[in-house]
Amino acid sequence: MKTKHFGSLLLLLILTACGGGGGDNGKPPFGGGSGTGIGPSTAPGVTPTPQPSAAATPAPTIEPIPDPIEVALKTASVQGLSSSDKATLLRLSQQTAGQYQQQQNTALADIYADNTLNLTLNHTTNSIEINRSISTMASPLIVADDGSGMAAISQYGKGRGLAYGVDMLKWMADKSKETQHLPLFTRAFNWVVTGKAAGPLPDTLRFATAGYDASTVSKFITLLGKKPETISCDLTLSNNTCWQNADVLVFGAGVRDDANLTQLVRQYQASGKAIIYMHPNWIDSGGGRKVAKAMGMDLGGYPGNYFAGAAGVSVNSNRTIADALQRGDQMGALAKALEQMGTDNLSIDLAADTRATSAISQIHNEIATLQSSGIDLFAEAPTDLHRLLILWADLYRPTIQYGKINRTTNPGEFLRTFASDSWLAYNRSYTTFASAGQGDFMPVAAQSIPVSQNDELIDVTIAQTGGTTAIGRASIPGKPVWIEIVDNGSANLSIQTNHVRAYGNPLTDNVAEGYKRPRRPQSFAMPLNTSKATVFVSPFGGPLYLNYGNAVAGQTVTLKIRGTAKYAHFDFTKPQSDAEIDEAVAALKRKDFGWQTAKFVGGEIQQTIYYANQAMGNIDPKVYILDQIKGSLFDSNHIANGYSNMPMSSKVSELCTQFGWQCSDAQYHRAPGVQHFVGWIAQCGFLCSGNPSDGFAGISGTGWGHAHELGHNTVQRVMSIDFNGQGCVVECNNNILASAQMMRQFKTLGVDTGHTTNHPLLYQYITANRATGLSGDAKILDMQKRLWTMAAQDPMRAVHFQLAFLFSKYRANEAKPSMEASLDYFTLLTKGDRLVSRAWDANNKGKYAMGSYADNKTINNPDLLYVLSSKIIGKDLKNIFAMYGITLTPTAISSVAALGLDVLPETFYALATTKYNQVSTGVWLDLSAQAPTYPF
């Protein structure tokens, strides 16, 4: 990191505070300094330029930096500091924030210093957000009614920047849209070029463009009454010198996405050039994103403002200049928060007044964005304020006691803890940690777990083209980790702790329970360097996860890693020795690390060590992990879904060969993605679906709750039967898979946890339908209304199992259905579903019983279930489907008829109320004539 000599730095700070340092009118120069320089100082080797008139309040004087703090700013470590330095760091942070506030607000006040300005504006949804990513460089110029950024300005070194989320320059040059905005845009244009919103502009304005239409720039300059002069220059070339001849550099979304573009543009601005960026639409631009990044800004994510509401892309007619300036003041709330953090006996209702915590979170989010893009804040010139805040947070953190901090009775302590949790740097070799532990995220005992002293090679199985996966090693609080890529193929890799979406919120958690855990204990995703080892350290620790993209599904990534610890991790995506399993089991029993994780084909779990032991209870850990989690929860789902990682039964294999189906091909039957489960905190309710799916409980391999959530993310359309939007859809279709697990679980583990499919009620619907005396379509529609348009899901789910029982009787030739044959039906059904979608054979459609269909795009779900089930069972099921109130199209009926199968008469398999999962305990009923009395 470049640093200034301390004496020179002190002189600069004194001059700045007194109105010197090269600026006229007593104003500080633009931009963030390099090295340890703090406050709006100049960039390396740059002479300050004159600035516009200041606000009435002078900038705060920044006190001299003590030598130990200067060392800390260089080394990113507070090891040489003492607790007494907290106050100095807090004061320096306040003063620095105050200087930036004055600098930025002065610029905004100058641009808006015309009481006749019309501030009404509509970017339309064909635009993109422009937000600041480094608040010490960029500040909002125009903020939409809902708070979204529409335009921003930037100050750095001797230069200034301006960016809009639409091509406002073209709109104004052509006078084609939002012409009322011309006076404000002109003032912003004058400011970025001259440093004064009222100009004057030079008579001849020289400009160069990159990815932008030069004639539009010329037209606008002419509109302003000045002479344009175009300079031919490739601004994306690192060795170009022609940029020096231009007064203003205009970039558009078409700029070439060069690897060095961000560095180049920042150099242009630091050297005094006016930088303008115009984004023409909602479409992303890699080059444009780099230009914005150079100015401390960030473009909104894909697809821009395409789906934004009016409040996200417009300024209403009630907006005043005072409102605009207030929205642009991004440092005021932070300066106030820093003042409150240093106040003894602070009195504030943090639940009602969120200004301080919002300001703290703003810096937190900036730090996250910067580090996630690979930026080292301690080597980034404009982040002087961020570095001071991070060092203060380091000094404060060791004394935090989670669970004993109350936001009502001690808001000052709460606010300081909130800030310390927020201002973090993971890409360095040193940080501090709370010696009392990290609440329910990590116990105190973890701090004593030894870490590896030598490099070790770790192979990590990559299941998908992109995702997140545990590597089987842990970060211990405060202990650095070194990670080097040995072989990543083409994958892009980042490292992070934990993969969670819900982690509590100290601002909304139960007040009586106190500040329970760090506000965001999982780390940001830190990009791994491809040419050298990446250093990583967390104050909270946690299981290490690889975040990957652009990978080859099924590949292996090899890492060289040092400084990590082993913990209770099980990896069944590759062979595991008994010794490895025993080591993980021992860690599970020790409970010294906060988390337990496991990897399976198609699934991963992570749960707190408390929940893991609670879910395991008194059973053997191997039984819990191997038999219940892997063998029951995941394997049952994958068998029912026909995934290629599970071996096919002999009957399934035999029928696939007979049908000519490609049943073992991984390109069709690979598990569609990795389903993550987290046992800690639920995003919604008690258990919440999604990926990750999370809950206030350990991962149970025998209860139906997690099977239900796993079903949500793996259910196929052949299990969704609805008519006019009602039927077995969400919260019912996924439960078919959960019930399949319950059925298999009883046979393999002897555990019956219920999960009703209610065959007796389904039978009652059938007999009630018969009692109406209706026939034909009227009878079918009456049954359809009874079964598929009512709220009772249990009898709806029973239909799929009745079909499975027919398979066991007529295809497996079983007198009583078995669990195995019933699961074979589901395996073939789901494989067939995917094959119809992905392996359609127009020349041999009959292999799927779809001979009458012109293509595979028009078959609806009830038809699909009918044709596939008839093919799989070997009987024409049109009477069975009519009995269940399922209407079929003539195309489906003729497709099955073409197979020449016997039409199966109405048949039902009765099960007792308490034995839905004990499938061999029932009785077959013949309904072809009179419906017999239900036998149970």
TrEMBL record:
It holds the Pfam family IMPa_helical. Residues 26-65 are annotated as: Disordered. Keywords: Hydrolase, Metalloprotease, Protease, Signal. NCBIfam families: ImpA_fam_HExGH. Its EC number is 3.4.24.-. This is ImpA family metalloprotease. Residues 26-38 have a biased composition (Gly residues). It comes from Deefgea salmonis. Residues 1-19 form the signal peptide.
